[in-house]
Amino acid sequence: MDLIEDLQWRGAINQQTDAEGLREELKQHPVSIYVGTDPTGDSLHVGHLIPFMMLKRFQEAGNHPVMLIGGGTGSIGDPSGRNSERVLQSMDQVKENQEKLTNQLVKLFGTQDFQVVNNYDWLSKISILDFLRDYGKLFSVNTMLNKEVVASRLETGISFTEFTYQILQSVDFLHLFRHNAVQVQMGGADQWGNITAGVDLIHRIEGPETKVFGLTIPLMLKADGTKFGKSAGGAVWLDPKKTTPYEFYQFWLNQDDRDVVKYLKYFTFLSHERIDELADAVQEAPEKREAQRTLAQEVTKFVHGEDAVVTAEKISHALFSGDLRALTADEIAQGFKDVPSVDVPSGQTGIVEFLVDLTHIEPSRRQAREDVQNGAIYVNGERQQSLDFVVDTDAAFGGRYVIIRKGKKKYTLVKVQA
């Protein structure tokens, strides 16, 4: 099975400008292929992984990936997939975001046979007159208005700034074709209009037989019809400071049975045979969640490394079993990031006073005494039923945290202030 057939099996191809032409080109020699992203934020998120995983597959098959970060286009704003104008960022913010995204991309793709380019380097050098004479003259407003990315905005309105975005993206493809030997542009389904505009521009300037190709990836929707990539807390980021590796792992572990096989095809490099085995496991023993666990392991390893998988599973086991003492302070911070928290001073305090006066976990001393004696209170994973028990903030987790559990699931993260 060749690369294109593999991508089709994975459900990863939406549209192609010249399917047979690209297939023949790949048979003859490795190609350079690029994906672009604008630095609209300071981190990539799991939605970006959709085209990135396909770019990684091209790399694994011996082709040459090029990642374009839109330091130029990012200062303008891509209208694709939006019904309103973007708020323009300062150039300082764009530059800062671009540096952070570059570091994340190098972590995913390595440095060998992988390029990161910034379109600010060439777009910023084009004067307004050169832009209009050399490129604007080659674009028909009628054709641009019919592109879905523009047509969908005509009722609500689109600025001239965002209207010209597809021209700038076309110039990017032309520049990379000339200077980086890039023959293929790949992107999400909403980029089809911008991608075909770039292919058309190259054919007008370099000749209609020039071998350049466009490829898009389907819009990723969950089984319930909602957009992939969001969790209860919002976007799932690749930056471990914004979404911890444990949260990242849990996002994949909690995927619906109806979606998990599709995600295994998209986001892992497992063989077809292994994915078919996991698909059978979903049908025969869904309660074991073997497919989800494998998905979580594979994607977390790709983004954060093997150690992150070990840590995420260690935290998961500790929370499930209630045995928290084996966790480090940093692992507690990951596992209890979204748990209600309260700050207390360091020191030793009787358990009733700790629950009522310091943390307000209990509404009254009477209720606190009752819950302690009934075995409903756990301190750092251990049940405490003695009213004489003293909570020592230095006893566990490097003196940084105390974990209080009330009942079966109600946790409070107590942060110790030095």
From TrEMBL:
Motif ('KMSKS' region): 227-231
Top-level taxon: Bacteria
PROSITE patterns per record: AA_TRNA_LIGASE_I, S4
Entry annotated with the keyword Cytoplasm: yes
Motif ('HIGH' region) on chain: 39-48
MF (Gene Ontology): tyrosine-tRNA ligase activity
Enzyme Commission numbers on file: 6.1.1.1
Xref: Pfam families: SYY_C-terminal (PF22421), tRNA-synt_1b (PF00579)
HAMAP family associated with the record: Tyr_tRNA_synth_type1
NCBIfam families attached to this UniProt entry: tyrS
Role of this protein: Catalyzes the attachment of tyrosine to tRNA(Tyr) in a two-step reaction: tyrosine is first activated by ATP to form Tyr-AMP and then transferred to the acceptor end of tRNA(Tyr).
Name this polypeptide is given: Tyrosine--tRNA ligase
Taxonomic lineage from the root: Bacteria, Bacillati, Bacillota, Bacilli, Lactobacillales
Encoding gene per record: tyrS
